[in-house]
């Protein structure tokens, strides 16, 4: 009986223990899952301390409530979001010295880029805590004092401390970096001899424009002379030392001794003369290089941006990219100049390039030509354009101004321009624009243009409406780009063979004096493009026989051949003839000859909306 009671008690005890064990298992698993998905709390605190103590002039979206791994500008985490591994904040306008015990607490950091700012003071000593650092970019700042001891960083592969005010000698500890592939210390105040950097992986070296002296070590003589120019160094092996001792067996005043002394003296004098001449040539080359550096050398060439041509320090400091509020891009002018680029097209006011940056960010860079205004007026105009926000207007993200270059940076639209979609290669694999998409393109572009016309007290003009300046967003609605450039450019007189002439209203003789009714006319031409599938100026048979689209449509409609007007690709869609005719009537009302007889863009929107009700999700 006692044994049975004991068994029952043991069973009850086990029953009571089982929920506790189960609860413990749930708790452990839950903690593991929570830790696997949790953000790096300590790294977040360190970064918030950094930005609170060291606020940039360009706004950052860092705050306690948002996710640093998914939303913070310039911050990259590892795959499981447990550690911050990269901080890229170039050109954000940091001024002063980096506060201690902030970035140095992010011990898993592998990439740090704070280039093109205004950071001063000595190299932060607590950066020695960043044991995992691999890529370090601090160029184009105002750092002073000696270079750091590099013994703490065993994984460093790229070190760029160029264009600062570092002084002292180059530390020998650099030779201990077995992974070092790129070292750039140009344009500093470094002195002393060049150490023997026996880094087996070193591929790029630049020590130019410092105050170094002596000979170039044999291990570094494989690099071009440009890596050492601007220093008082011997670019060959160590200088030859001529012996001046006289053999004791020779009488001091013998003829052979005199000949030897004359020979030695002659060699020394000749060497001195040659050395002086080489030094003068060297100074001339250095001065020429520094003078040439004042101009923006990183030109955007067809198909690529020349990476070997860089911006001078002064110009980069005074003329960095200007980003607009809310822009989440983390790159600077140097990134653009080094990135690969593809020519998208050459328009009325300049060429456009598709630029793919190091972190795979893709943007469009417009390189302007024939800008007619100075820096102040240009900046004021860019500020006005950059402040204009609308879902159907391609947003200006940043701009750059210098004497030689004016650049504008936009988002990249992967589907390309409306012109490319309409007039691109036609073949078996071509995806034709269906009727609903064409209406969406027209409606979106009309809304964007109407919003532009409502800005600046209702006086803002686009001035260059054409299908190559329209793009398609993710909802398949048209968006307008190249806003307001006509006002700041030289007047462009386009020959009749150029496509831009096909969009120009009859009353426009000076592109700088375009008005809103002329925008309406150009928009009407785009509508005709969508309806006919033809370019504004298109050949009709002969090589030199160019027909204006508006005149051709007028002639066809006048002869009552209305069906001949429409794109053959639209004929496959049933029951749209009436809608196409209504859209044709809207287009014809936009391209009437008298400007005061054209409708306002707000009226055009209503007319297009009445053609077909397809726009529930995109109502503003």
* Helix segment tally: 13
Structural class per helix/strand content? alpha/beta
Residue share in β-strands:
15-25%
* Helicity, as a percent range: 25-40%
Radius of gyration: 34 Å
Q: Report the count of strand segments.
A: 26
The description of the largest β-sheet is: 7 strands, mixed
| Global morphology | elongated
Distance between the termini: 83 Å
- The residue ranges in which pLDDT falls below 50 over 5 or more consecutive positions are 28-36, 237-265, 281-318, 494-499, 615-620
Describe the structure.
The protein contains 13 helices and 26 strands. The chain has 620 residues and is α/β, with parallel strands linked by helices. A 7-stranded mixed β-sheet has the order 1-2-4-6-8-10-12, with no helix packed on it. Strands 3-5-7-9-11-13-14 form a 7-stranded parallel β-sheet, with no helix packed on it. It has a 6-stranded antiparallel β-sheet with strand order 17-21-22-20-19-18. Strand 1 and strand 2 form a beta hairpin. The longest helix is centred in the middle third of the chain and has 38 residues. The protein starts with a helix and ends in a 9-residue tail after the last helix. The C terminus is likely disordered.
